[in-house]
Amino acid sequence: MQNIAEAFSLAFALVLSGDADLFEIVALSLQVSLTATLLSCLIGLPLGALVAIARFPGRGAVLVVMNALMGLPPVVVGLLVYLHLSRSGPLGFLGLLYTPTAMIIAQTILIAPIVAALSRQVLEDLHGEYAEQFRSFCLTRRQIVRALLWDGRYSLLTVGLAGFGRAVAEVGAVMIVGGNIDHLTRVMTTAIALETSRGELALALALGIVLLVIALGVNAGVQALRMSAVRQAYV
């Protein structure tokens, strides 16, 4: 077990030296998390928009379910995906278990309800402002959804960021369906857990540093876009 100062020193050395194993893990983490976030947005944003503008019996129950699904336990999702993708499961013939694809599926199931619920709230507030204009233009539901998604795009970037943050920091589900296999399914969070249990703190801290830098970078990028949009609005 290294002392803390030595562990941090080795961690920064790994990052600055461009360690191949380190960046292989980072690259796979970004590939899995970004793909899952994109799929979740493709599913969640239209769903959130439809629920935001629609009025139907049982809508309150749908909202309760959507909000409840935001707190899905990752290990339960991982277990359900595992059961479906295992050899004895209904999708076992696809051979996806212990692959990055299985990890993307698990993360998408976790993130899509978050994107749907948060975007529903954002777009419902926006729809309240424009409802009379939409009625006066006699727009179809599809046109209204498109208009809301476009007008709320900067706020929805924050929703996507929340989904990405959940994905890139997730460990339980990806550990179950991915197996944490070296050079195949090992991502930052699972590698941090493994290396910490081994007492190899340098790599764990290096991955933690990269994870924090990615989170700060994404937040800074979204904030810059929103500030640019605000400045353009006042021009």
From TrEMBL:
It is a multi-pass membrane protein. It is found in: Cell membrane. GO terms for biological process: transmembrane transport. Its main location: membrane. The lineage of its organism: Bacteria, Pseudomonadati, Pseudomonadota, Alphaproteobacteria, Rhodobacterales. It comes from Thetidibacter halocola. Keywords: Membrane, Transmembrane, Transmembrane helix, Transport. This is ABC transporter permease. InterPro entries: ABC_perm_TupB-like (IPR049783), MetI-like (IPR000515), MetI-like_sf (IPR035906). Residues 26-222 form the ABC transmembrane type-1 domain. Belongs to the binding-protein-dependent transport system permease family. The chain crosses the membrane at residues 32-54, 61-85, 97-118, 156-181, 201-222. The keyword Transmembrane helix applies. One of its GO terms (cellular component) is plasma membrane.
